[in-house]
Amino acid sequence: MVPFTTTSLPGPEAAKQPQTIRLPPPYFTTVSQHALGVDVQKVEVEEGQGSVLLPCEGPTFECDNCSVEWSRSDLNPSTVHLRQDQGDHLQNQNQNYRGRTSMITNALEEGELRLNLTHPSVDDTGNYTCSIRYRGRKLRQFKVQLKVQKVPVPTWVTVLVVVLVLLVLGGAVIGGVLWYYRSKTNTVLQVEVDSGVESVLLPWRTNVHLTDDVTVEWTDKENRKVHVYQNGSDHPEQQDGRYRGQTEMNKDLKIGDFSLTMKHVTSVDTNMYTCTVYSRDGNKLSSKDVTLKVRVPQVEVEVDTGVESVLLPWRTSVPLTDDVTVEWTDKENIKVHVNQNGSDHPEEQFYLYRGRTEMNKDLKTGDVSLTLKYPTSVDSGSFFCTISSNHGNILMRKEVELEVRDCQVEVEEGAESVLLPFRTTPDLPGDTEVVWRRYRPRPVMMVHLYQNGSDQSDEQNQFYRGRTEMNEDLLRTGDLSLRLKNPTETDSGGYGCRVESRERKIWRWTRVMLKVKGPVQVQGPTEDIRTSSSSPDPTPLLADSAL
User: Fold this and answer.
1) What is the rounded CA–CA span in Å between residue 116 and residue 104?
2) Which of 88, 171, 395, 456 is the most exposed place for a label (fewest CB within 10 A)?
3) How far apart are CA 250 and CA 261, in angstroms?
4) What phi, psi does 502 have (nearest 5°)?
5) SS3 of 51-108
6) Cα–Cα distances in angstroms (integers) from residue 6 to residues 17, 32, 242, 506, 511, in the given order
């Protein structure tokens, strides 16, 4: 839902290769997948290799003051590498990665955000996040799962271990029993549920009876506080904001029931949750891990880039009062639309969605559907609608999955021109800047720049100079399409258009994939290769001539 992608785009060079990310040796497995609306890459490498590349890319060249942070949520501090406009900022880097990480010099200018990690070890195995921020706000993140495998143990070592095991068999049996008992008592509970259910229970009940002066703390794997119960009462002020009003616990701890009820869960609640019990003195008494998996619904809404609007539907089964708050957010928890006390609050919207959303004014009908205008493929992903009371308690929650198919344009070489379409909201402010770039294949090229009310041909790449034009009344109509004259096969690739107004804090982005087919090879009349000199029997040739 924000303008970043790891998808390879068609072009002269890309067409010759599979559309998957391939890493050079020593990487032996790279799997691309999509989970919970977040792009994921899996990378495997053997311990002892010189380095490994963690892939990440996005058009950071489209924004000023962008920054990229690589992190691991299970570490403290979590920062693995931070790149800002001024260069690397490594003061808060985790000490395990000191001197072992680097990014290419012009990473932000080219959108090549991959991380080079030297001397990978088994301890580096984990989930890495590549987060892209614009003006301090997180726009998009990518996940990379790194697995560093130990080098296989030589056969002679295995034989030696077997002999030693036989010698201490008695001790090994006892140790095995203890290990089995411990593994059974530390088994992680697995809970699965569908998105949108009214509530789900993360269970944990012990036989130990505790006093009211203990502290029970539920946290997620990012160590965010989900629920805190201390001195006989809940402490919502200590909760992370995303969980506030969503959790509930049994008040009587004496029965040993520390289970947590989570209300109206969605796919973003998929996580590993840990319940820890502390004594009055702060000593850890016990803990339990529970994994929650919220099943993501199938794509509910599909449209093509270029449609005027799309409806994200939700009609509640009960009518609503005017004092509720209806909040639509995207998968990054960015506010898409806010309706409070019967009126919209555009000042709370993120500028990517400003002027593009609309809701039914009469909430009493229970229709809280959202109309999203001029959707593009960067809007694809999960949207969440949360209905809260005037006290902030969550009443209902719904998840809607949107897929906006990419704009694909094909034309044959030799055509007079080709149109790269992009239409957005009309009546854009006078300070609006419109930038068309080609970002696939590399290097990134400036295709067309509209700035300060006119075209800026001096800023164009010479390859496109004199070959592009836009509508004269583009800001009033919102038609920002680009016409490319005399397209050739080398023009094939991925194009992006950024629209920005600092005055009204408007931001738009779309991408168009262009394929220019080469000239068709017309084959001339087939020449009969038989001749009187080469054919042992000229009769067939004479017969053909007679016909």
Assistant:
1) 9
2) 171
3) 9
4) -75, -25
5) EEEECCECCHHHCCCEEEEEECCCCCCCEEEEEECCEECCCCCCHHHCCCEECCCCHH
6) 16, 10, 28, 24, 13
Tokens 């549920």 correspond to: 193
Nearest to 494 by CA among 427, 416, 409: 409
What does the DSSP 8-state code read for residue 17?
A: S
Whether pLDDT at 7 is above 70: no
Give residue-wise pLDDT tens across range 245-263: 889 998 777 778 899 999 9
Over residues 485-532, the pLDDT tens digits come to: 999 999 999 999 999 998 878 889 899 999 999 876 655 554 443 333
Task: Note whether 349 and 338 are within 8 A (CB).
Answer: yes
DSSP state of 325: E
SS3 string, 249-309, reads ECCCHHHCECCEEEECCCHHHCEEEEEEEECCCCCEEEEEEEEEEEECCCCCEEEECCCCE
- The structure's pTM equals 0.67
Angle 294-297-303 from CA coordinates, rounded to 5°: 145
**CA-to-CA distance for 308 and 429, rounded, in angstroms?**
20
| C-alpha–C-alpha distance, residues 357 and 345, integer Å | 11
Neighbour tally for 399: CB within 10 Å? 23
What are φ and ψ of residue 524, in 5° steps?
-70, 175
**189, 291 in Cβ contact below 8 A?**
yes
* 256 close to 209: Cβ distance less than 8 angstroms: yes
In tens, the pLDDT along 33-83 reads 333 334 578 999 999 888 999 999 887 877 767 899 999 988 888 999 999
SS3 of 200, please? strand
* DSSP one-letter code for 457: G
Backbone angles phi, psi at 215, to 5 degrees: -115, 130
Q: How many residues does the chain have?
A: 547
